[in-house]
Amino acid sequence: PFRPLLPIFLQFDKILAPLIGKLLLQLAQNKEDIEDALKILQDNLPEIYFERILTELSGFLQKEDYCHFIKHLSVDEKLNLAQWFIMEKNRPLFVFDFLQDSVFNQASIDREKCQNLLRYLRQAENLTVREKAINYTVAWRDDD
Protein backbone atom coordinates (compact mmCIF):
# COMPACT_ATOMS: atom_id res chain seq x y z
CA PRO A 1 0.00 0.00 0.00
CA PHE A 2 2.87 2.44 0.65
CA ARG A 3 5.24 1.22 -2.10
CA PRO A 4 4.04 3.81 -4.65
CA LEU A 5 5.08 6.53 -2.19
CA LEU A 6 8.65 5.27 -1.76
CA PRO A 7 10.08 6.93 -4.89
CA ILE A 8 8.60 10.22 -3.68
CA PHE A 9 10.26 9.81 -0.27
CA LEU A 10 13.56 8.97 -1.96
CA GLN A 11 13.32 11.95 -4.30
CA PHE A 12 12.70 14.19 -1.29
CA ASP A 13 15.47 12.75 0.87
CA LYS A 14 17.80 10.07 -0.48
CA ILE A 15 19.37 9.43 2.92
CA LEU A 16 16.15 7.63 3.84
CA ALA A 17 17.33 4.81 1.53
CA PRO A 18 18.89 2.60 4.25
CA LEU A 19 15.78 2.86 6.40
CA ILE A 20 13.43 2.21 3.47
CA GLY A 21 15.59 -0.72 2.34
CA LYS A 22 15.55 -2.31 5.79
CA LEU A 23 11.79 -1.86 6.04
CA LEU A 24 11.25 -3.51 2.66
CA LEU A 25 13.54 -6.42 3.59
CA GLN A 26 11.54 -6.95 6.77
CA LEU A 27 8.35 -7.16 4.71
CA ALA A 28 9.79 -9.39 1.95
CA GLN A 29 7.96 -12.69 1.52
CA ASN A 30 10.06 -14.01 -1.38
CA LYS A 31 13.00 -13.23 -3.64
CA GLU A 32 10.81 -11.17 -5.97
CA ASP A 33 9.86 -8.86 -3.09
CA ILE A 34 13.55 -8.36 -2.33
CA GLU A 35 14.31 -7.64 -5.98
CA ASP A 36 11.40 -5.17 -6.17
CA ALA A 37 12.80 -3.35 -3.14
CA LEU A 38 16.28 -3.22 -4.66
CA LYS A 39 14.85 -1.97 -7.96
CA ILE A 40 13.02 0.89 -6.20
CA LEU A 41 16.28 1.92 -4.57
CA GLN A 42 18.31 1.54 -7.76
CA ASP A 43 15.85 3.61 -9.79
CA ASN A 44 15.92 6.46 -7.28
CA LEU A 45 19.53 6.65 -6.12
CA PRO A 46 22.82 7.63 -7.75
CA GLU A 47 24.77 4.50 -8.74
CA ILE A 48 27.62 4.88 -6.25
CA TYR A 49 25.23 5.54 -3.35
CA PHE A 50 23.04 2.62 -4.43
CA GLU A 51 26.07 0.28 -4.35
CA ARG A 52 26.88 1.43 -0.82
CA ILE A 53 23.28 0.87 0.30
CA LEU A 54 23.25 -2.53 -1.45
CA THR A 55 26.36 -3.57 0.46
CA GLU A 56 24.85 -2.33 3.72
CA LEU A 57 21.56 -4.16 3.11
CA SER A 58 23.33 -7.40 2.15
CA GLY A 59 24.05 -8.09 5.81
CA PHE A 60 20.33 -8.20 6.54
CA LEU A 61 19.85 -11.37 4.45
CA GLN A 62 21.21 -13.34 7.39
CA LYS A 63 19.46 -11.50 10.22
CA GLU A 64 16.57 -13.10 12.06
CA ASP A 65 14.13 -10.20 11.68
CA TYR A 66 14.62 -9.72 7.93
CA CYS A 67 13.70 -11.82 4.88
CA HIS A 68 11.96 -14.36 7.12
CA PHE A 69 11.55 -16.90 4.32
CA ILE A 70 15.32 -17.38 3.93
CA LYS A 71 15.78 -19.13 7.26
CA HIS A 72 13.39 -21.86 6.06
CA LEU A 73 15.42 -22.60 2.92
CA SER A 74 17.72 -25.60 2.59
CA VAL A 75 21.38 -25.00 1.76
CA ASP A 76 20.74 -25.85 -1.90
CA GLU A 77 17.79 -23.45 -2.00
CA LYS A 78 20.00 -20.72 -0.51
CA LEU A 79 22.58 -21.39 -3.21
CA ASN A 80 19.85 -21.21 -5.87
CA LEU A 81 18.58 -17.94 -4.38
CA ALA A 82 22.07 -16.43 -4.52
CA GLN A 83 22.56 -17.70 -8.09
CA TRP A 84 19.27 -16.08 -9.11
CA PHE A 85 20.39 -12.72 -7.73
CA ILE A 86 23.78 -13.06 -9.42
CA MET A 87 22.93 -14.56 -12.81
CA GLU A 88 19.45 -13.21 -13.48
CA LYS A 89 19.40 -9.93 -11.58
CA ASN A 90 23.09 -8.97 -11.69
CA ARG A 91 23.29 -8.31 -7.95
CA PRO A 92 26.43 -10.20 -6.85
CA LEU A 93 27.36 -7.43 -4.42
CA PHE A 94 24.08 -8.02 -2.58
CA VAL A 95 24.57 -11.77 -2.02
CA PHE A 96 28.34 -12.31 -1.82
CA ASP A 97 28.57 -12.11 1.98
CA PHE A 98 25.46 -14.31 2.25
CA LEU A 99 27.17 -16.94 0.06
CA GLN A 100 30.36 -16.72 2.07
CA ASP A 101 28.69 -16.93 5.48
CA SER A 102 25.64 -19.14 4.89
CA VAL A 103 26.25 -21.27 1.81
CA PHE A 104 29.84 -21.98 0.81
CA ASN A 105 30.85 -23.24 4.25
CA GLN A 106 28.06 -25.83 4.56
CA ALA A 107 29.18 -29.46 4.44
CA SER A 108 26.23 -30.64 2.33
CA ILE A 109 26.63 -28.03 -0.41
CA ASP A 110 27.27 -28.94 -4.05
CA ARG A 111 30.95 -28.03 -4.29
CA GLU A 112 31.03 -28.02 -8.07
CA LYS A 113 28.20 -25.46 -8.24
CA CYS A 114 30.02 -23.34 -5.67
CA GLN A 115 33.30 -23.51 -7.57
CA ASN A 116 31.57 -22.55 -10.83
CA LEU A 117 29.83 -19.63 -9.16
CA LEU A 118 33.10 -18.44 -7.61
CA ARG A 119 34.80 -18.66 -11.03
CA TYR A 120 32.01 -16.55 -12.47
CA LEU A 121 32.31 -13.99 -9.65
CA ARG A 122 36.08 -13.79 -10.13
CA GLN A 123 35.38 -12.46 -13.62
CA ALA A 124 32.67 -10.00 -12.55
CA GLU A 125 32.61 -6.51 -14.01
CA ASN A 126 32.14 -5.04 -10.55
CA LEU A 127 35.65 -4.73 -9.19
CA THR A 128 34.53 -4.97 -5.56
CA VAL A 129 32.86 -8.31 -6.29
CA ARG A 130 35.83 -9.52 -8.31
CA GLU A 131 38.24 -8.60 -5.51
CA LYS A 132 36.11 -10.32 -2.84
CA ALA A 133 35.82 -13.47 -4.98
CA ILE A 134 39.53 -13.60 -5.79
CA ASN A 135 40.47 -13.15 -2.13
CA TYR A 136 37.96 -15.73 -0.89
CA THR A 137 38.96 -19.35 -0.36
CA VAL A 138 36.39 -21.97 0.55
CA ALA A 139 37.57 -23.86 3.62
CA TRP A 140 36.28 -27.32 2.76
CA ARG A 141 37.67 -30.21 4.73
CA ASP A 142 38.80 -33.26 2.79
CA ASP A 143 36.63 -35.62 4.83
CA ASP A 144 33.35 -33.84 3.99
Helix share, percent? 55-70%
Work out the count of structural domains. 2
- Low-confidence parts, pLDDT < 50 over ≥5 residues? none
Biggest sheet statistics: none
Number of alpha- plus pi-helical segments:
8
Radius of gyration, in Å, reads 16 Å
- Give the helix/strand class: mainly alpha
Give the topology string: H per helix, E per strand. Answer: HHHHHHHH
The end-to-end span amounts to 48 Å
Total beta-strand segments: 0
Shape: globular
Summarize model confidence as the mean pLDDT: 92
Beta-strand content bin = under 5%
Give your account of this protein's structure.
It is a single chain. Helix 2 packs antiparallel against helix 3 (31-44), helix 4 (47-58) packs parallel to helix 6 and helix 5 (75-88) packs antiparallel against helix 6. The chain has 144 residues and is mainly α. The protein contains 8 helices and no strands. The longest helix has 14 residues, at 31-44.
SSE blueprint and pairings:
Elements: H1 6-12, H2 17-27, H3 31-44, H4 47-58, H5 75-88, H6 92-103, H7 111-121, H8 127-135
Helix pairs in contact: 1-3, 2-3, 4-6, 5-6
Essential attributes:
8 helices; about 140 residues; about 0% strand; globular; mainly alpha
Short overview:
Helix content is 62%, strand content 0%. It is an all-alpha fold.
